[in-house]
Every structure is written in C-alpha cells, then in structure tokens.
Amino acid sequence: MNDMLIDDVVVIPLVQRATEKYGLAKTLNKDNIAGGPFDALYWNIANWNRVS
Amino acid sequence: MAEKRRLWNAYQDLHAGRISRRSFLQRAAALGVATPIVLSVLRLTDVAAQEATPGAGAMATPPSAGTEDQTRGAGGELKLLQWQAPTTLNMHLAGSFKDQLAACLVTEPLIHFLPDATPIPCLVTEIPTQENGRVAADLLTVTYTLQNGIVWSDGEPLTAEDVVFTWKWIIDPANQSSNAALYEAIASVDVVDDLTVKISFKEPQLGWNSYFSSAQSGGILPEHILAAGGDANTNFAVRPIGTGPYVVDDFVPNDAVQYSINPNYREPNKPFFTTVNLKGGGDAASAARAVLQTGDWDFAWNLQVDPAVLRDLAEGGQGDLVIIPGTAVEFLTLNFSDPNKEVDGQRSQWQTPNPVLSDKTVRQALALGVNRQAISENFYFGPPGEPPASNILLGIPGATSPNTTWEFDLDKANALLDEAGWTRDGDVRQKNGVALNLTYATSVNEVRQKTQALIKSDWEKLGFQVELLQIDAGVFFDTSAGNDQNFYHMYWDVSEYAWSPAGPYPLSYMLRWVSHNGENIPQKENGRRSTNPATTTRSTTRSTTKLPRKPIHRRQLSCSSR
Questions:
Q1: Beta bridge partners of B246
Q2: Model pTM score
Q3: ipTM value of the model?
Q4: Which of A33, B259, B370, B496 is deepest in the core (most CB within 10 A)?
Q5: What is the distance between the alpha carbons of residues B511 and B499, in angstroms, rounded to a whole number?
Q6: How many CB atoms lie within 10 A of CB B241?
Q7: Mean pLDDT (whole number) for B198-222
Q8: Domain count, chain A
Q9: Rounded to an integer, what is the distance from CA B1 to the centroid of its chain?
Q10: Can you give the residue range of the structural domain that contains A24?
Q11: Which positions in chain B touch A49 (Cβ < 8 Å)?
C-alpha cells in the first residue's frame, strides 16, 4: 500500500523525522535512556544512572 | 477496512496451514505491521524469529547496565529541563508528550516497548503469546497476570481490579480522557483472579498490545484513590499515586515538578537518583545550551533548534546530543479534487477533479522537482537521524518498503511535462487553457517555510506558478468543523505536514490513506466519509461537512503538529 501511494504520486515524502532530539550530560549513562518511537522518553528512569 | 480484513485473512490462512509463517510475515509487513508485533503473536521457532529480526530470540529486559551494585537514592538530584512544561500529571488526560513524560515517573503501564518495538513486561509477569496461552487464537482476548507483591506508593496492593477500573475510567466520557478513542476497541476487561485480568476486544486485534502498554497511553490508575471521583480526580492530576519509582512532592502546573523516591518501589536498589527536578519554561535553544554547553542541567527534551546551532553547542561542551530516528514522515500531499470549485457547498469536493494534479505526469514532475537531499541536510539533521524519505511508512522494524526510490532531476521533469503537452507560455506552462498554478500550504514554522521556499523555486523552474500559504499551527491542525483553513479541508493544492503511527501497529495510520471507492486517493473520500463505517472508528479521516465523531487521537495529533 505504501508502494501504491508512492507509485501513483499521491504523496511525496520529504524527510523521515527524528522521534526525539535530546541532550544529556556526559556524566549520565546514555545506554539506559533507551528512548524510542514507541514509549515515553523517560520510561526507563528507574534504571537511569551516572557513568562510573 | 480492506487492509484490516486482508490481514485477518492472512492470519486465518496461516492458522489453517495454508500459508507459511514467512509468507504471513511478508503479508503483515506489506501492511505495515512491525515484525516484533507479528512475532509476539505467532509461535515462531527461534530460528525463524532470528531470521526475521536479529536478536529477537533473546529474552528482552529494560537496559540496566551498571545498576547491579548501586544503592537506592545514592545518586543525588537528577535535573530535567523540559521547556514545554507539563499541565497535568494524569497520563490519561495528557494533551501531549510533555504531560505523558512528567506522568510516567509515577504511573506505569502493564508493558513497555523497547526502541525496536519489542514489548517487555513492566507490571506483569510475562508478555502474552499464543504459546503461553495468553493471546487467544481468534485474537479476541488477551490475558495478563500482574507480578505478585506490587503495591501503590501509599502501600495498597495493585490488583486486577485496578486494570478494570483504568479501562472504565478512560472510556467514561465524564473524565474526558485523551485516550478514550483508543480504548474503544475493547469490549470488556474482566478480573480472572486477584492478579489476572482478561481483555476482550470487539473484533480480532492483531494490535492487542496497543492497550495498557507504553508510558504514553497505557498507565494503570489506582481504583482505591479515584473511585471516589470528583475532587479525587482533581487531586490526582497534581499528586498522582502510582507504582513507579518516584512520587510527586510538588507540582506547579505549566512550571515545575519535584519528585522523590517511592519508598514502596518494587526494586530495592532503584532508583539511583534521590530526587528529580523537572523544570519547564524558557525555550528549546536555552535548554540546549544549559545541557550541551554549560552542563547546568542533566537532560533536555525536544530540542527543536536549528541543526547547525545544536551541533555547535554540542561541540566540546558538557553534554551529548542524541537524535533518535522516528516513524514521523514530513510529506507533501497532493489534492486530487479542485479546491477552487464549489460543489454541494464544498470546495475540494471529491468528484471534482483537480485540473492540474489529476494528471499523473504533472505529479511525477513535481516529485522529481523536490530536492529531498537538500531539505534533509540543510533544514533537518540529515542522515542517519533525519534522512530523505521515499516512503510514508518508516521506522517500524520489518515494515519499510525496499521498492521505492526518489530522485531530484529537473531536466527529466521538464522533459516529462514537454512530452505530456504542457507548453510554456512565458514562465508558466499550460495545456488546453489550464495553467500550472498551485497553492501550497503548511503551518507557520521556520523549517517548513525554508522547505516551502526551496520547493517553490525548483517547481518554478519546471514552469509552475506556486503561491505559498502559511497558516498558524493552531489553526492548521485544528479540526473544528467551521475551520476551513485546516489540513482536513485542504482548500489548496498541496499540503505539507508530518504524521506518524501512534504505535508499532500502524494499521490506523495506513487506513488513513485508504480510499474506499477502490483508489488510494484520500481526497476523493471528501464529504462521503462521515457515512463510511471506517470513519466512525477512525478519527484520522476528514470531512468537509461534519466533524469527525471522535476527537483525533491525541498522540497522533501531537505527532502531526510537531
């Protein structure tokens, strides 16, 4: 269906937009943030910590 | 609803052994269903699962590196700068992400989603599958069991009754929940035992895990607090009681929230941070500076700042910039109806062909005349965070079409128009007395205006005359019936905005593009949509004569207006 819409030029996609653009202190452990398009950005805050 | 029926047919074929799992996976992917969603429904072998998504065979848990030996509360203050400050702390009243974010430290769903859409348990023992008997073969029911021993922050036990209550609270019109439309797919939620709850759907749900899931729309509410209604609801919006790692000490709406540790949180050595200070106000640029450059704050969300400025701030500063690719696509939609002719009291009436855009050659020329690379790199962050797009369905694992391409070629576009008989009369081409005049509308937004200007200048090289319209975002995305300046009415030729699926199960997003008279042209449904069964449950379609019966699902709206 995506292909039909593109082939028939019903829609012209421009850019895949970022879900999120965030900044974090270098002292925070980036790996445990785990932000993605399908859940709230702070969803894993119970596991947020500092880099040791 | 043809897509939904096709998916259901494919599922039945699979179940009867008429098609292979691989073939089902392909059919589901073609309809845009994320691989992890399909895998979670199907009983795939480890080998097949790993072929489909690398790593999907492993048991998924929340990332928790370095938390093993920590002591609860040893981390001191965590400072979150959230320039769009929260208005309410009730997740089910959330107007947009800002409120969901502030609420999710307290209020938790049954399951979360990892960035690749893999579901993982939060309050429950395991993710339902058909193998473990929790997802019924007919996809009409799903059963969850709560982890034993979880208590609310006030010490009361979490029970199956709370899940039932949450559903009733969300769909009660008196509560005006922003998630009411989403949860209407549920027929009932019933207690099986103290910790077990069964969700029954009105029709088979491949998207069964869209409910009570994610910290955006799935939070469980405490019956013992909210059953009283009235003031209890008012109090809850500022001092919510939850099962999450934090409790709210102080909340000033549209300003700031102070959190401290929930003493009853189920994991004894978490959370690490003693307090959380969530501060609103200011703007995205000052928030970016405070985290990336000066390091005064730990974390800043939604940095909608010029890419070049952000990169400079991150260079050699105290913080890092993270760009997460998403499912939202910025696109142009082309109006197949005529916005300048009034029929039956409507403009852009679906049976009135657009004199310019109903010619496919013209549409192809317009597509060739859009420099997506320049837009991606100059106005957005460029690849890999914000790459040029050739699909409307992106960012969902396993569902991206490999069949489409895009190119920017003005010579080729001019040649196409020459061949099709659109001849130049001065700067503007025409054919049979119709000139290539277009109106192109979007919301007031610096990036969108730069995009408009670039596209206009290239389209004018092809012999189009382009009039740009900029409409205040509050008006452009407002769906009131009397508002003829919104993107639903499309009283112009070309619209630019962004839209994204509300979750990893994008059927309602794709249904938005379905035209029910056999062609995939959304505008043709104008004026007829209010009588179509598809639109009584899908609020994402448009009508020139009537308001959609249901409010637009807020998460989709917040995506579209970002």
A1: B261
A2: 0.75
A3: 0.89
A4: B259
A5: 13
A6: 20
A7: 93
A8: 1
A9: 20
A10: 17-52
A11: 66-67, 70, 75, 272
